[in-house]
Amino acid sequence: MALLAFATFAASVASAQTYSGKITSSDWSGDKGLESDVDYSLTYIESTKKLNFEFTVPCDKKINVAYFFAEHGFSETKIENPQSVDGTYTVSGTTVGAFALKKGDETWFTLKLVIDGIGDIVTNRIAYKAGEGNTAEDTEAPAWVSDPTAVASSTSATISVCAKDNVSKTLTYEVSKTADFATLETVNGKANEATEIALKGLSPKTDYTYYVRVKDMAGNVSAEVKTVTFTTTAQAAVVATYYGVFYTNDWEEKATVGGKEVVPQINWKAETLEGYNDVIVTAELSEALPDGAALKFCAFIEGGVGPVDNKDMTATGKANEYTIKLSDVLPEGKTLAKDQIFGQFFFRIYPKEGGVSRTKILAAVYKVGASNDPIATDTKAPEWGVDPVVEKVTDKTAEIVVNVTDDSGSAVITLTGDNGFTELKKEVKADGSNQTIALNGLTANTTYNLTLAIADAAGNAGESKTVNFTTLETPDREVLYLTIPIASEDWNNEAYNPNGSMLITVNPDNTLSFKVSLDQDREDFIETNMYVHGVQEPVSLIRTSEGVYECTTTKSISNRDALVHFHMHFRFSDGSSTFAVKNFTPSEGSTSAVAEVETEAAKVVAANGVIRVEGDKTFAVYTVAGQLAFRGMGEVRLDKGVYVVVVDGKAQKVML
Predict the structure, then answer these.
(1) CATH, residue 107
(2) Domain hosting residue 415, numbered range
């Protein structure tokens, strides 16, 4: 049971002036904005030179994130997942760092909102004078409505607080483990309403004391500091433990800090708790994280749970060890169940600078309740069974047959070479059987000298081997087109599940072009990727117009008669959505682009290196890879090749 005590201090009164105003429909930039007025107040705290802000935003759609920017502020302030009450959002906070202006200096501010189904909307610059006030100065500190209460589990607790204020609609609650508030966390909440403060990463069966005080938008601090004491419960028994490891060469994205790649080995375990409704993931790193870096856990859990994306792991107190309890971070209303499959399981590291590191993604490897033996230390290097052999050489592709053995059962072969060969890493079985490495995107009529370096997942390196071969001359191949429908039920997240269609082009060099046309679009995409299995994973889809995303692989398929599998993954600010795995056979494509190349609509003449459209018509010319080569009227001179000419919304192929 939580116990309460309080200390009484003289209320802290800030020297502050509040300016209130309205953002009207004419204050939004571009052609997107809100029709209803947005009330706001800005309070400049002279002692800290910070700016408190509060916006009351009427909006019938979900606001995913808001940004407040004041010129000469230390940085843009981000407000994630603002909450709505009866269709009205309160967006509030304090500028990060010290405000550079002195009282009386002139500046301006902007408000940006990211809204579901609309995207970004942002105001024009709105003038403001630091410290200017048009309301009576607020010198009254907020007061507690009721004593805080705490509810604890084994590794987390929730403190419920409620205070009131004479002016501010938004209050800031400061929580600290020490009475002097030397280090603290802040949570914003509405005045006169209960606000929950979540504490995570706690230890089971442990006594905790936290101190809480409340501050209004003018910077006035409550006279009473509340003390909340509670004891966490015992941890549920572990019924199954699954062990795994990400080695240093298992990182697919690599941040660099101080000239060194951030790629530690991660020995991890997933412990299923009694009842099979919770899992604790613990990660032990082989080296310390860079200063200020965060280790994040990422997963996609099937069975209706969905994404657990970029969730902070908490240091356990042991050297380089971090943990996360999934019940603390699952989507609201979701729970785990026995045998629930983790469709994706991986880690990210976010340093302060230098990019992001990401391990490879384990697909359907772990499920709730799974168990295995701890991973043994591996010190033996892999060995070659026979020398590698080059087979099936074409103009753009080749295959290398390898045969290796290792006590781990797998090895990584790194291929490097000359004449523009791009380094390739390939994981193969190391059980003494023949394995094939496909090489794509080669240059025709070119001699390649390649080195094959071999190592196991633990980093033990074996003897390197070399091969050489010459690609064939380029044969004549026709362009083929296929169309695949996109249905809403093919996506795994209702937050983004558009309908549409996909045009696939098999180019003469056997690269693949994808044009994805969707009836829904978002402005907050972080990643839009196409995964062409066994060819190129991933390929970034580029937004070329509203609802249209396109890409072309740099690597080629080796056989037009072989089935090609692919899927898409779109990640956005508050989640992600994956398009189901589909397949097609390239050779079954048509020689005309379905829904793209239609019957002739205008007289097009192509001869002697010139494409001409008769009549005063604007036309566009595209390469077969989808790149715009010309747009205008009259005629255009181009290099030899196959082109698509679009006139009056109709398209046709021509050859120069």
Answers:
(1) 2.60.40.10
(2) 383-470
